[in-house]
Amino acid sequence: MFWTTLVGIMVASASTGVALGAALGLTGLVLLQVFSNGATGLAVDAVWNVFNSFTLSAVPLFILLGEILLRSGVSNRAYAAFAPVFRRVPGGLLHTNIAVCIVFGAVSGSSLSTAAAVGSVAYPEMTRRGYDKDMIVGSLAGGGTLGLLIPPSLSFLIFGALTETSIGRLFVAGILPGIMIGLMFMTYIWIKAARNPHLAPRDLGETTLGAIIRGFGQVWPLVLLIMAVIGTIIGGLATPTEAAGLGVVLAALISFFLGDLTFRKLLEAIFHSAQLFASIGFVVLGATILAQSVSILGIPQQILLTFADSGLNRYTVLLLIVLIYLVLGCFFDGLSLMIMTLPVVFPLLTSLGFDPIWIGVLITIVIEIGQVTPPVGLNLSVLASLTNNEVSLGRVARATVPYWMIHLLAIAVLTVFPGIALFLPNLLF
Amino acid sequence: MNGFRRLFAQGLEGLALAMAAAAAVCMIGIVGIITTAVIMRRFAGTPLHITEDVVGLMLSAVLFLGLPLVTLRSQHVRVSVVANALQPRFGLALHLAAMLVGVVFFGWIFVKALPWLDFAFSRNLKSETARVLLHPWMTVLPVSVGLTLVIYLARLVGLLDRESHSTLEALPEIAPGPQKG
Fold first, then answer.
1. Which residue has the higher pLDDT, B80 or A125?
2. What was the ipTM of the complex prediction?
């Protein structure tokens, strides 16, 4: 009866195309009304308590940081710096896309900002040089997802706030897996470009060490930002929220003096960030009500008991969860999916002995996959619109399949070697 | 009737825009307070004791003040797969069902939020550390939910045009279009 009500109301209401937060929240309210003796008043308290949070306030700040950088043209500088490094390597500027996505991801918390900022510079330049369009958008969609894994990350922030896991440890845990996945992307590009040279025309011009050093001299503001944001968290000088606030101020100053940021663009960035946060926050609001209704009935504990009695080993359970995420990723965007499922998945996986920090990394990778899974993969839509639909959504999705597979491979590697995620947090905290 | 509809839509848009502007001001406030707190702690050795409480309240304000405009401009995260597939044949029915879900949800929360606010008002509730009076901040929740309810109701009865779905995640205008070459 409970599950029929939950699934029935959620599917029926969400299928109408109403705001997802309203669909989730209404489901939670009905569950509270029917199964908890009409305790719907708890919903308002739960929502107020979740948002009245210092920790969660880092989310709009990191959104704002990304918006400022997106409008400042700072990605042009990063691109110019990395371009000479990979000039003579098979794959050329495709590697630059991945490298710049890693760097941009280290100052932006969102995979979408990363894909948009790097893509807006890379796509025109690379099409002009005769690179294969599918390879370009594939590398940008794949590379963009690294923005969620490389700290600072909206995914880690929300995960940490909702599960009361250390956000500092989560941020640090994302570094090595992020770099690992970036290197896996580059290896794929290398192999593909070496076998099919027409996909990425080689630039046989000379690259001097001086040119490379001069290029990197242009990106010191980005390095400064990375140190200010990540360095202060790792060094214990600031909490993630404080680091985000300082990062916003620093990004605005750098972008004013060294980039193309104007006062008008800054106001646009602030207004847009507040709206984007309201949009994401409303999903959190609905999921909070649903989570309240589910937890008050002891459903996570019932699921734990069911799995404990089933005799399945923990890796089978993990595999099932990943598969469920992959399927749900076709219908929900990544962050919404994580917010909805955490109340059940997190206690289940921790009870099976998985490390909470490792779970945060795993779930972030799985929702990264959701960002590039059609039909709702937001990175795909952004890249299709960035090409003015020269490359259709379907083509972008097909071009992204190898990167999708690499993410799955990364999950397997991290499951076998959890130390890749846990080494740095254990070392630094 | 058309004149009234236009006036009503303009009024709602103006109200929602004013609230969204206030949300942006709260965003600036969050950055300002956090920066000041860090500077004071590091350089003056004095923590700003109101930081955590006020930033938390401002975060709630950003969400609730921004909500009506996000709703009015149909910029919510939504599940579009089924709705898009059914749109050509069942567009009107889907629209009515979606608006009904919105009306029931926001109506329900609105009704529950009134006694919740009344309790805070009658007891003069204050925040734990900074002792900030809570009800002025808490008022934002029923006001925002109430205005969003009005938007859904107006769409349901045809006072406002149907939703034309856009997304805030759309590429900002700063990204240049591709150069053909």
1. A125
2. 0.90
